[in-house]
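Example record for the data management plan.
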Amino acid sequence: MWDDTSPHWGNYSVLNICGVYIPIIYWKQVYSHSPNGGGSAWKPKQWQSIKNNYSKWKLLVAQFRKGTPDDFWSEFKDKDGNNMKYTAINQCLREIQAQEDSALATRARSEYHDTFADHFSYKKGGIMYVKTKDKDIAKQYRCLISIADCGDDGDDSDD
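Corresponding structural encoding:
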C-alpha cells in the first residue's frame, strides 16, 4: 500500500481516483497540489488532517525497508516476545528519531557555530528566523551533508 514499486503493492489503496488506486507515497502530491497546475491545492484541509498519519507510515516503511522483514520484527518485539503493534512501533521509531535528531542538531550547532544562522534559517512573513527545533536542524543538516533526500516529506515543522 505504501508504493507501487514494492513487491508488497497489491494494487489497492483507500485513495482511489477514477478507478486508479493511489499508493500512500503519492498522497501529499495528490492532496496538496493543484490538479490543473493552478495556484490552489486540491484538498488542502484533507491533507492537513492526514499528514500526521502519512509521516508515521513513512517512518515505519523506511525502517521496514532497511533490512529484511525478519530484521524488522526481531527489533520490534514486546516484553512477551510478540510482534509490537503499529502504535508501539511508531512510538519507538519516534524516540529513536528524536535521539538521532538531537545528536545531529548538536553536531550542526558545533560544526557551523559562527555561521549557523546562515545555514539554518527560514523565512516566514518576510522575516528570517533561525531554526531552534532539533528536528528541523537535523533535517537541514542531513541535506547539507547529503545523507538524505532533501525533498519535501510532508512533515512541515519549521519553528
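Summary line stored alongside the record: The longest strand covers residues 121-124.
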